Structure formats: C-alpha cells, structure tokens
Amino acid sequence: MIKMPSSFTIIFSLIIFVTILTYIIPAGKFDKEFKQIGDGSKQEIVVAGTYQLVDRDPRGFLHPIVTILTAMSKGMEHAAEVIIFVLIVGGAYGVIMKTGAIDAGIYCLIKKLGHRD
C-alpha cells in the first residue's frame, strides 16, 4: 500500500516543480495602465497585445537552490497573522470539543425541542 506523502512533501515538491518551470517557460511581461472604475478609485489593468519577452535573470546556479530552501520560511513569515489565527481558532475549537460543550448544547436543544410537532 502506498503511503500518502505529508503536506510539507507536497508543498516542497510543488516549489521545486515551479522553480524548474521558470527555466522552461520564457520570461515576459505586459504593459499595464490605471483605469478609473465606478466608485472613483483606480485599478491597474493589463493592456491587451503588449506582451513582450524580457531577459532572464542571470543569478547563477545556486540562486534557485537558495530560493527553494528559503521559500517556506519566507512564506510563513509573510503569513504569520493567518497562521496564528488558525492556531488560536483550532485550539479554541479543540478545547470546546474536549469539554463536550457543543454535544451538551445540542443534547439540551434536542431534549427541549424534540417533542414539538
């Protein structure tokens, strides 16, 4: 039986795959302009038909390796607020489930409302 890889293995494999794709897919860019939208604010949009190839970044062989090894830590650093929020909500949910408060509340509702027709 094949064991399912961990989430870190899947994410790390995706990072390596996408890094390899940057050497296969040609680099390019579109020109952009700001357009006024209905509420008075401006939104940056891509100008159709302005795609142009750009030179590759000549940083050498070690740069992608360093980028791969530091990608997860940089991503976690930039998403620290979301990670902390998920940990707090998950911990609170775990405490509520461990105490049986939700089960007791549902049981109480069933007991009070269960005989209504």
TrEMBL record:
Keywords: Cell membrane, Membrane, Transmembrane, Transmembrane helix
Keyword Cytoplasm in record: no
Signal peptide extent: none
Database matches in InterPro entries: C4_dicarb_anaerob_car-like
Entry superkingdom: Bacteria
Residues passing through the membrane, by range: 7-25, 82-110
One Pfam assignment: DcuC
Membrane topology summary: Multi-pass membrane protein
Cellular compartments per GO CC: plasma membrane
Location(s), subcellular: Cell membrane
Protein's recorded name: C4-dicarboxylate anaerobic carrier
Organism: Borreliella garinii PBr
Taxonomic placement: Bacteria, Pseudomonadati, Spirochaetota, Spirochaetia, Spirochaetales
